[in-house]
Amino acid sequence: MSTYVQPEYLLRAISLLPHLEQLKIGFISAVPNSEIKRQLSHTPITIQVTLPNLRRFKFWGNSGYLETLLPHMTTPLLQALMVYFFNQLSFSVPRLSQFMITTEHLRFTRATLLFYHKGVFTNLDNPLAGTGPAWLTYFGANVTSRHLDWQVSSIAQILNNLRPLFSSVIDLTLDYREHASSSELHNKVDRTQWRDILGLFRNAEILRVHKGLVGEVSHSLRLDGEQSMELLPELKELVCPTGSVDDKTFASFVHDREVAGQLVKVIGEAFPVGRDNYYSFVTSTGVTYITQDSPSPTSYNRP
Length: 303
Prior knowledge:
This protein is an alpha/beta fold. It has helices at about 5-15, 35-40, 65-70, 95-100, 150-160, 190-200, 215-220, 240-245, 250-260; strands at about 20-25, 50, 55-60, 75, 80-85, 110-115, 120-125, 140-145, 170-175, 205-210, 235-240, 265-270, 280, 290. The protein has one domain (about 80-290). It has nine helices and 14 strands. Mean pLDDT is about 80; it is low at about 295-303.
């Protein structure tokens, strides 16, 4: 028996709700992409749904299922999009990228990546965005995984698909919460994966790094014969824990930028990041997700 609603049936159901403003679609467990393809071979999608009043859309489940839905949905007034994916071996979300790009006035200026004990959470927003009806001002993506190396690998794949969305991001934060359940082996991340993530934010002018990631990030920024301006070429400020300034953790990176004619100011703060409020919820179906929303699990509103 199928563990999920066939996309055609789901789309036909929501097409009957033209006044819908908030939509949540979620599943208890992951649906293999092979199962989705098999079902589509028997029940192809023949409907195109327009939700003219939809403002907020939340999905949790398998990325393949979401990729199946999105080409058949039009949401002209969408303002907030949140996706929560189960842990998968690989992620490919080109249709998610296309869905967001076609949203009018899409422009994110701030990105936050939080690596925590149950997964990785990405937040893109624009705190200075207008209040017009056609602004997608908030996007959140969460991947369930307990190991830091898997978290970095997963989010690097997803963000690479969303690369066109980052050209306007000028403020990048790398946040962290203790990974007590993760072994030392899984806490070691290939430097290439960190560089893949940092390389997506070419116009970032400010980088904020949590103390738990200082070692990983500083190691990733070392040149080893590479061009000094390859990563974060527009960076002007690097905000890190005070101790990382005192022990000159980023001294080599700052020196190389100075030689290249691009000065980077290192700012030491007791808590450069890590004071944002995140809320972890377990839904009635047993799905755990994290959000920066208000403490009510039924709320979509930003604080």
